[in-house]
Amino acid sequence: MRRAFDHQAHFVLGRKTPNIHELYTFGRKLGQGQFGITYLCTEISTGIEYACKSISKRKLIRKEDVEDARREIQIMHHLAGHKNIVLIKGAYEDTLYVYIVMEFCSGGELFDRIIQRGHYSERKAAELTKIIVGVIEVCHSLGVMHRDLKPENFLLVNKDDDFSLKAIDFGLSAFFKPGEIFSDVVGSPYYVAPEVLLKHYGPEADIWSAGVILYILLCGLPPFWAGHIDFSSYPWPLISDSAKDLIRKMLCIRPSERLTAHEVLCHPWICKNGVAPDKALDPAILSRLKQFSAMNKLKKMALRVIAESLSEEEIAGLREIFTAMDTGKSGAITFDELKAGLQRYGATLKDTEIQDLMNAADVSNSGTIDYGEFIAATIHLNKLEREEHLVAAFQYFDKDKSGYITIGELKQVCAELNVTNVLLEDIIQEVDQDNYVTIPLFTVPKFCL
Fold first, then answer.
1. Fewest C-beta atoms under 10 Å: which of 53, 134, 313, 355?
2. What is the pLDDT of residues 256-273, one digit of tens each?
3. Which residues are catalytic?
4. Annotated binding site for ATP
5. Of the candidates 293, 36, 28, 303, which has an alpha carbon nearest to the alpha carbon of residue 152?
6. Does the predicted model carry a pTM greater than 0.90?
7. Could you tell me the domains of the chain?
């Protein structure tokens, strides 16, 4: 069976393509996911810069993996031409990789841009939501669900133009027919719709994700609740009733009663000459947004550092568990494998709780947990209780062994781990308790958790 998939992986595109290395030169790494790495590349004939996603065919183990890679390219071509969707330039293939060359978005992530702005208001949030939901509308009208809408998947082509926002990463997207029901659980923890976790959903799930993004745009925090939206606590009393009305209708638990993309765009808060006020929101909201965005990125860095600092003896037991759970020997644990493995180890968790574990561990949003993610997540789920792990992480960041982590040292670690667009001053401010613009050792648990 494995051999058949490997053979098929040689024909992902189903055609012979030119040698990409004769057409483009490859530069620095821009990002990394489960199946491959995205690089900056330059077209030799024109000198124009593009982003190139290189998908390792060695990792396309299952037939479904090959189909997913092929479908990502098909969907990008299908959606090409919309001003707020990243443009595919071309696709190439050799014996080792499938390459997707696309427009390079040099302006950074959506949240980072908001944070850099001096004036941020409901009207600005409405303009951004209009772009995001406009992308959903065109996707749905063309029979595509994005399935992984989150702020990180919206980049700016030009950092000076807020309207150059582009949706990227269609790796989890799917074609759908009206009325078709999907059951595969994909998405990201903060943004995934409840019906996705129940394995019975359609395109309405994208609207839920956009509703979560809007909620965060207005208050700086993700919504944590069990089916109930709290509009009584700060800053919601300061936010217009129209905004809250729209959020309620986008975060409606029943998918059939949720607004469609077109209905969102027609809502008074969104539409042209709408009612979203232009009064600046409280600066504390921007501060929250900074901390949410920055700590999100740094937590992942700290977990990676701690996972890599563990000795062979400490990892051996976790490796045995991973190997035992990976019954398909694919190198990644699926939802069903995790469920069966937990049952074998005596855990009695509901499907939704198991999915929460999957979501927490699946940093690359691949729908499976690879070995590195498993180790990092296992440490995380144990709350990093052992002090020596915390100290090891701290010492990795504390390059000069001064007992404090400085902005310069954070920059160095970001470069080593290829983490970009992290607002280091805000991370320092969040955990710095004595205003020395450093992170002392005793704040490490807060820093990591």
1. 313
2. 999 999 999 999 999 877
3. 148
4. 63
5. 293
6. no
7. 2-103 (3.30.200.20), 110-281 (1.10.510.10), 288-448 (1.10.238.10)
